[in-house]
Amino acid sequence: MDVVSDAIAAVRLGRPSSARVRAGGSWCVRLDPYEGAGFHVVLAGDCWLLADGGEPVPLATGDAVLLPHGAGHVLADSPVDAAAAARALPLERYREAPPRGGGVEMLCGKYRLDRSRVHPLLAELPAVVRLPAGAHGELQAAISLLGGEVDAQRPGSAIALPSLLDLLLVYMVRASVAGAAPGSWSAALGDPVTATALQAVHADPAAPWTVDRLAAEAGVSRPTLVRRFTPLVGRPPMAYLTWWRLTLAAARLRESSDPLAAIAARVGYGSPYALSHAFLREFGTTPGRYRAGARATPG
């Protein structure tokens, strides 16, 4: 897969959840911090969002907002300060008896993520990413499809809705990365040499990569690859390869019952012992204990 797809797939857990929320009159609701990524899409009307420690963000029809680190936040009919936010009603209680005369309609949801192995491409995103209506055609198409599926008892909706929510996440992250500031990790994807080396590693992490082989793949010398790759990615090429292989191993341990030998071969280790040694050094626990702990964690 490509780097963005891998960055999402390696940390995503379970299925996303979403709900249609309608609000009207004077209203202010709170959503607590969450171990994952939250999102809101304004289907009609307008409102304001205030993340903990942030500034009020206006949202209008067609806007989407991603909270990639699960920040606690408030949604309201007008700009709110910290004092007003402290009096906000929890969203769950508000939805039990919302006021009549809706002024805004939103799709609110969240994705579960494994915070222990967040890819730096996602880790560098700000607490709130606002994606204005009309700025990203693919995103708007996904929003339109979601608006027609949520709450609808249509044949196949049980499959269509979570699939569209997954697509929404991809489009939101893609748009966020495309709009990232110069000097951010995502700049690595804009550098032809670094991007080629990253793509090679992500396309075949089990290959017997060396710095020389990656340099040849990128069409540059070994020193040139190291000089361009390291400052953009934050790790030398081989250190990034090791980190990514162990991230993939952790994901397979969480999500599958594959034997350790199969996982080792899949991520580029010659034996279960070699993987176990590297895994213990990186995670501070054995693969077996990591898998048992992941299964004991509620989904």
Quick structural overview:
By secondary structure, the protein is α+β, with helices and mostly antiparallel strands. It has helices at 3-9, 82-86, 91-96, 120-123, 137-149, 157-178, 192-203, 211-218, 222-233, 237-255, 260-267, 272-283, 287-296; strands spanning 12-23, 28-31, 36-44, 46-51, 57-60, 64-67, 73-76, 89-90, 104-113, 129-131. The protein contains 13 helices and 10 strands.
Describe the structure.
- By secondary structure, this protein is of the alpha+beta class.
- The chain contains 13 helices and 10 strands.
- It has helices spanning 3-9, 82-86, 91-96, 120-123, 137-149, 157-178, 192-203, 211-218, 222-233, 237-255, 260-267, 272-283, 287-296; strands at 12-23, 28-31, 36-44, 46-51, 57-60, 64-67, 73-76, 89-90, 104-113, 129-131.
- The strands form 2 sheets. It has a 5-stranded antiparallel beta sheet with strand order 1-9-3-6-10, covered by helices on one side.
- The protein is globular and about 65 Å long.
Provide key terms for this protein.
10 strands; 299 residues; 19% strand; five-stranded mixed sheet; single chain; 13 helices; alpha+beta; five-stranded antiparallel sheet
Decide which structural class fits the backbone. alpha+beta
Number of strands: 10
Regions with pLDDT < 50 over 5+ consecutive residues? none
Oligomer class: single chain
Quote the beta fraction: 15-25%
Give the strand line-up of the largest sheet. 1-9-3-6-10
Shape: globular
The whole-number mean of residue pLDDT values reads 87
Number of helical segments with 4 or more residues: 13
**What sequence of helices (H) and strands (E) makes up the elements?**
HEEEEEEEHEHEHEHHHHHHHHH
What's the Cα radius of gyration? 21 Å
**Helix content range:** 40-55%
Distance between the termini: 26 Å
Largest sheet: 5 strands, antiparallel
